Amino acid sequence: VNDLGGSTQGDGANSSAADRVVEEIRGAGGTAVANHDSVTDGDRIVQQALDSFGRIDVVVNNAGILRDKTFHKMEDADWDLVYRVHVEGAYKVTRAAWPHMREQNYGRVIFTASTSGIYGNFGQSNYGMAKLGLYGLTRTLALEGRKNNVLVNAIAPTGGTRMTEGLIPPQVFEQLKPELVSPLVVYLASEQCQETSGLFEVGGGWMGKVRWERSLGVGFDPQAGFDAEDVAAQWQQICNFENAAHPADNMEALKEMMANLQKYAG
């Protein structure tokens, strides 16, 4: 259990957060060890897990901080620190665990995204960037890990935690218990789960899968050429999601473009 124990703004350090979770796990009959390193020290975190348990099967990347400001008030330090904790931290820990999972032909990796990244949220350009960036990492690692049975998914949770306390109305905060999120995490971390590259919203006892959707669009003649006025004239159809496509990978994403090139070729 890793937790530097810093504030929600990323300041300071306190070992009590990780220690408390370890005590709860041990009290319930489980086995756990606490780690108080920064998530950017991924090698140290993973090595402690290997020293303690002999192998590493699951990584849940859940470290995060907030530095909420509107974009025009954002300072480099606010942007850089959020990136460092969310994105670089997740990279460092996962990168350290990855070769061990590949070698043993088994692994489960879970990244924590956010609806702030999926849909945007006022004052959270740094946070939204980091969280949706983690889903981009999820998609690529899912492709790279599949042949070694390393499955990678992302969750976008809503829960009452240290980071959201004070941001959610108290009566709602009390209902959004973390244990209403953890069953999904446990399933995604299990051998039973064969899902990979998924993104799941979860909270309050509800969960659902998110997918990309794209309009069928409009194909212009590359040989004849087209201009902004042509784009404007077709704008309604470009944005028409009737009979929408749901590309699962780059090959599917290029399908309409390649068909358009072939249609107007020579």
TrEMBL record:
UniProt keyword annotation of Oxidoreductase present: yes
InterPro entries: NAD(P)-bd_dom_sf, Peroxisomal_Beta-Oxidation, Sc_DH/Rdtase_CS, SDR_fam
UniProt xrefs under SUPFAM superfamilies: NAD(P)-binding Rossmann-fold domains
Keywords from the UniProt entry: Kinase, Oxidoreductase, Serine/threonine-protein kinase, Transferase
Superkingdom of origin: Bacteria
A GO term, aspect molecular function: oxidoreductase activity
Entry-linked Pfam families: adh_short (PF00106)
Similarity section: Belongs to the short-chain dehydrogenases/reductases (SDR) family.
Name under which the protein is recorded: Serine/threonine protein kinase
Source organism: Stutzerimonas stutzeri
Lineage, opening ranks: Bacteria, Pseudomonadati, Pseudomonadota, Gammaproteobacteria, Pseudomonadales
